[in-house]
Amino acid sequence: xTLHVGVHVSIGGGVDxxxxxxxxxxxxxxxxxTRNPRGWMYKPLKPDEVALFxxxxxxxxxxxxVVSHMPYLPNLSSPNDNIYQKSLDSLINELNRAGELGxxxxxxxxxxxxxxxxxxxxxxxxxxxxxALDKVDNDVMILLENMAGQRNSMGxxxxxxxxxxxxxxxxxxxxxxxxxxAHAFAAGYDLSTSKGVxxxxxxxxxxxxxxxxxxxxxxxxxxxxxxxxxxxxHIGLGYIGxxxxxxxxxxxxxxxxxxxxxxxxDKKRGDLGNIMMIWxxxxxxxxxxxxxxxxxxxxxxxxxxxxxxxxxxxx
Length: 315
Fold this sequence. Notes:
Distance between the termini: 15 Å
Number of domains: 1
Number of helices: 12
CATH architecture: Alpha-Beta Barrel
CATH topology: TIM Barrel
Number of strands: 10
Shape: globular
Strand order of the largest sheet: 1-10-7-6-5-4-3-2
CATH class: Alpha Beta
CATH superfamily: Divalent-metal-dependent TIM barrel enzymes
């Protein structure tokens, strides 16, 4: 078998450049923001860059393994009318942009009810998603991402996500789930032990169902279990740890999905190091064409060469 694993890559220099970056990493999947994630303003996508993006995605075999992520500012559960409308407009825009680029999935954060309670937040969120799907006629699937349990956040518990899915049942062909390991751990689902992983996936299966799972965000957690803090760490270096990721990746429902890393880039490790760790911890030997790209990349940037030599070459 092979894995479809990669990182969130920059679109700097043009959206098509993201495909090149993913390919150079030896990624077999990748995620992007289609614009600046920290602002409300955006520019239309350039037709020549869109054409290049689509051509490269097809050429490198990424067709079903590309993910777009909503910017950070929108809050689709906000009780503030101004913020809510801007968030809805942003969702509609991102659905259209993903459609232009031929990206099959758009991951959204579920937002915060700002102290108004889950029911009020649910009403806002369901209205936003249904309105956007009614207005945008394309094949892009909106993926609801489980949250980290921050105060007033929506959808950190699987029971809440079940309620949201029930409210969107008439859009079942355009709705799915993105499961984030760091968020789940921060929300109290113990992914560091065998018993905890078994419990977590049993709960996921009972309340949500794996048929809804389309993408997995693989991130370690810098803070302890049930911290409510959304701070990612390198794979195996956080509180989930190598043991936890071995257990997570032993689940066929997880390993068969696109696996996206949103891990830090710092002196401890680069993106390639985290990609290699997933292959290693999954116990899947990378094919020769992937190994070749890793070797070429490490010649230019040797930061993660130790992982390649001590883990990958010994598989």
